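for the writeup, i need someone to sanity check this before i put it in the appendix. the sequnce is what the collaborator sent (i think, or maybe the updated version? ugh). structure was predicted straight from it, no edits. if anything looks off just tell me and ill rerun, i have time this weekend
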Amino acid sequence: MFVALPLIWFISTPFLPEEVFWFPFWLGAVIWNGADGQGGISHLLG
């Protein structure tokens, strides 16, 4: 199931709006850098 979701997302990207396409990348950046760009997980790891 977890493998199918990214696969379905990559296959459907030509049919999705651009904002939906970039959402997983944006979410990863917010988790890594924090909402304000200072902190997040990267702050904990040094």
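The chain has one domain: 3-43. The CA atoms of residues 1 and 20 lie 20 Å apart.
thx in advance!!
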